[in-house]
Design brief:
InterPro entries: Thymidylate_synthase_ThyX (IPR003669), Thymidylate_synthase_ThyX_sf (IPR036098). It comes from Caldanaerobacter subterraneus. This is Alternative thymidylate synthase. The strands form two sheets. Strands 1-2-4-3 form a four-stranded antiparallel beta sheet. The chain has a four-stranded antiparallel beta sheet with strand order 5-6-8-7. By secondary structure, it is an alpha+beta fold. The longest helix is centred in the middle third of the chain and has 32 residues. The radius of gyration is 25 Å and the shape is globular. Helix 7 packs antiparallel against helix 8, helix 7 runs antiparallel to helix 17 and helix 9 packs antiparallel against helix 10. The chain is built from 20 helices and eight strands.
Amino acid sequence: MKMRKLTLEEERLLENFVTDVYGPVYFIHSLPEFIIPPINSKVSRRDTSWRLNILESLTDGDLNITDYIPKHNIPLEKAIQKAKEFHEKWVERFGHSSIAEQHLMHLCVEDVSRLLSGDIELMNRRPAFIEWSQRYQKPTRDKVVIPQELEEKPDLKEKFLKVWNTCYDAYEKLVEVLTNYLAYTEEKKEGESEEKFLNRISKIAFEDARYALILATKTSFAVALNALDLQDIVRKLFAHPTKEAKLLAERIVEQGEKIAPSTLRHLTPTPYQLEVNEKLKEIVNTLEFEEELAPSSEDVVLIDYTGKDTEFSPLDIVVAHILFTYSGKNFETVKEKVKRMAEEEKERIIKKAIEGIGEFDHLIEAFKSVRFKFQLKISEASWHQLLRHRTIVFDYSEPTIENGFVIPPNIEKANASDILVDAIKASEELFVELKEKLPQVSSYVVTNAHKRLVIMNADLWAFDHFANLRCTKEAQWDIRETSFKMLGLIREVAPQLAFFMARRKRA
């Protein structure tokens, strides 16, 4: 992200609110909570450091900086020492995690690989992330993480850089071709200026051209989390197979110590965390698998759901939970009642449960009683959006080239598929070599177009929220297609629980 040289006055101002004025990892602190979200939100669509956004907010009249600089002369050293002793006793010695949970922190990480950012966002489901977006911004050629492991393999490093440049050349060419194509095929909206029209089609071009980029492409993210969840993520970073992750963990600890000197403890990964993945990989590698049973050409498969092959359907289960909640009867009594109910009566209860529901409303808790499990084969571009849905549980394989790839429809229509395919082939050749010689680095050269296998396990409440966001016209085409396929499969097995979904309609 872009960071300029600051004036001495600007540096002194920022030092009040960030732990590092120039480094790629830092914490925001000492600002009112309501100010931080709008500062963070600018980043998905602007390639500027959060620190510059803070400066802008503090100096352009939006905020009166004098309101946030302490005016008192009260000595805080004694209070700080007492707090440190408290944390050391109750958090470090006795492990009272509820105290660490009360410590809210705002971490900013700039110029990390797209590969690692995705892994971090799945390390803990509770923190809230916001990320630099390839959908709205065009990365520059220098936005690439060169894995440190390659420094000891100069021949592989040279090949890595060649693949990066090949893929980036393809990206730039696709942006150009798609922009020209869309200029002739997209219609202007009513009242839309030429500048706004060009800006809109440029973003569509960025969105589709990014399928040529590899997972080593740099991104940046901000995350709001408590100290306990930060400890969990740091431990997992130290246990991560890449040097990039371990270096990031060290930087986070270094910066965190500046504002949380006694809450960032127990950061060493356990032997279990260090060993479990490799142990399981070794076991799997010794197994011989038969040919796929019932192979499917479909990228979206409903593999299981609550009530499958039982006498109690998904509809029965949700109705039972509604009756349990509002009747005060025990669950066995409720189940017997549901068994004797006519289908029309059960459907009437469901319709009453969602009567008047708006496009921004959530379902009641009873809908969490039913789960649907899908196997998905989706592009890395789509996966990076899907994993943001924190209430859904995912099992996922590592990035690979073995599941094929996606070509965006606009690229096909613009007769530019060869540009993308050539970039994909270059990445695949290096992937095969890295998989043999330096396997922990191979994932960095997988493209956004390559497909990943994912199991998505969502309760009906979470899926309703997901579909309400991802089945709109505004949603990116790739994840929207997957969302409608999943919704269609739910409608096949539980139509009474799906008719109200995807109700949010945005242009």
